[in-house]
Design brief:
Helices cover 40% and strands 21% of the residues. The chain has 430 residues and is an alpha+beta fold. The structure holds one RNA strand of 77 nucleotides.
Length: 430
RNA sequence: GCGGGUGUAGCUCAGUUGGUUAGAGCGUCGGUUUGUGGUACCGAAUGUCGCCAGUUCGAAUCUGGUCACCCGCCCCA
């Protein structure tokens, strides 16, 4: 009989126990930040109606980008980010929610695109959003960035530091208006500016779209700074001061690793204002490890009430799994989760041993029993060694008759026979 | 969808200008005191050499096709 494949599908991730412990440690630290900050956890369905996920009606085209399928007449698909489901959720529960609403989600998302390093088809994302009705001050954008920054800070001992790059879509809208670009030209210019640091002939490519003079004006934003366009038009002025005020607010919240980079655009077209991306300082070759921005109109397809959001997400898989794959994370501190391996010799001693396991666990000690009592003792102690247990508690006929345990320190090999209470004391002294 | 690369043991990979029974390290299992691990020593198991066809007396090796994976592009609503 042919054996079936053991590898998961391409682009899907599974971790070894030590990696998973690191992953869980990091995500729980980040969620601690969110809980302390008062955000509400939402756990939304992984599957949505296809019409919720996309406005496009070209099934073939979107099928290449999303996981879509059909049951009966219902077309549905796996969510590709947290924002769409959140918009639907908020629009559907307007009467039960209080705004501004602070939310977070920690969930798997799915994309059908071809996988690459740091780009998976199934990945964890931590989304944080603040939603308001009718309007939401720019101060909330800063709150989101500051909270995101704290989340990264909470795991900086594992993954290093991040830098925050902040852009503003309003700036470019004002700029294109000032330059008199058509809608098509604006759209193409958006894409080019977004890719500015990736492509070689930026000005040439831009010249093809908008002509040499305007291309040079756009390039001068990068050469002379965005502030050189002050006092041109009212909307330019306001978008520029919006960025400056934003940075000042972040500074006053203790965020020092943020800078304006007007080439930051973000792919999602629903963003309308301030946008930002987070990059790893130590591993700049990694794509953005998080980002977000403001979306004024996303829920318009679900509700006539205007719902405004500012939100961001941490690409948890990209950040952690990609770094683990590149062997950039020191996993040694996650290697020894077990305090005591309880080894049992003889089936007739199992009850006594399990009682001790229970006492150890009640005392807050991580204890696991080795219950194949017919295995040779050598195998048992080897197991204790391999799982990195700090101690082995050995239980055979002698120990049971004396109502004690033989406690062996696996690091130095010292062994003594103790009462359970004394064993607990010894184990607890780290 | 496009371009490039790689497919040999559970894993990482060797494998000479095509030549007999296919190799190493690590891991696994067993043994070197049946109540004592890490180190050391001895031994064992495991491969349709990704798949199909072709060239050849002979293919892991050369050619074509195909599939899978990796890297990059497109895309990122």
């Amino acid at each position: 009989m042919d054996l079936k494949p053991t590898k998961p599908l391409s682009g899907f991730i599974e971790l070894l126990p030590v990696q998973q412990r690191c992953f869980d440690y990091c995500t729980s630290r980040m969620m601690d930040v969110l809980r302390r900050s008062g955000y509400n956890r939402l756990d939304l369905p992984a599957i949505e109606r296809a019409e919720v996920l996309t406005d496009k009606d070209n099934w073939d085209e979107i099928e290449t980008q999303m996981f879509l399928f059909q049951k009966g007449d219902t077309k549905m698909g796996l969510r590709y980010d947290g924002t769409v489901g959140l918009s639907r959720y908020v629009a559907g529960h307007l009467n039960d929610l209080t705004f501004p609403l602070y939310t977070y989600q920690f969930a798997r998302n799915y994309r059908g695109e071809r996988p690459q390093r740091g780009r998976y088809r199934e990945f964890w994302q931590m989304d944080i959003d603040i939603l308001g009705l009718q309007s939401l001050s720019t101060n909330y954008d800063a709150e989101i960035v500051a909270t995101l920054s704290k989340m990264y800070e909470s795991i900086s001992d594992i993954v290093g530091n991040v830098i925050i790059k902040i852009g503003n879509r309003k700036f470019w809208n004002a700029m294109f208006e000032y330059l008199g670009l058509s809608e098509d030209q604006s759209r193409e210019a958006f894409v080019l500016i977004d890719k500015r640091d990736k492509i070689s002939g930026f000005v040439d490519a831009l010249t093809d779209v908008v002509g040499a003079q305007k291309a040079n004006e756009i390039e001068s934003v990068f050469q002379n700074g965005y502030r050189s366009f002050l006092n041109k038009t009212e909307s330019l002025d306001s978008s520029i001061s919006e960025m400056d005020e934003f940075i000042n607010l972040l500074n006053s919240m203790g965020i020092k690793n943020a800078e304006i980079d007007v080439s930051i655009m973000r792919g999602h077209s629903y963003y309308t204002g301030i946008v930002y991306e987070f990059f790893s300082v130590n591993y700049p070759e990694l794509p953005a490890v998080g980002g977000g921005g403001r979306y004024e109109n996303l829920a318009s397809k679900f509700s006539k009430t205007k719902i405004v959001g500012v939100g961001a997400s941490v690409g948890v898989s990209r950040l952690l799994v990609a770094l683990m794959e590149m062997a950039k994370i020191d996993l040694s501190r996650f290697e020894n989760p077990v305090d005591v391996a309880v080894l049992v010799m003889g089936d007739n001693n199992v009850a006594y041993a399990m009682n001790i396991v229970s006492q150890l666990r009640d005392a807050g000690i991580v204890a696991i029993p080795y219950l194949d009592t017919d295995k040779k003792f050598k195998n048992q102690i080897e197991y204790a060694d391999k799982i990195g247990a700090r101690f082995a508690a050995i239980i055979g006929d002698d120990e049971v008759s004396k109502n004690q345990v033989a406690l062996k320190n696996m690091e130095n090999g010292n062994q003594e026979t103790l009462s359970v209470a004394d064993a607990i004391k010894t184990i607890k002294v780290k």
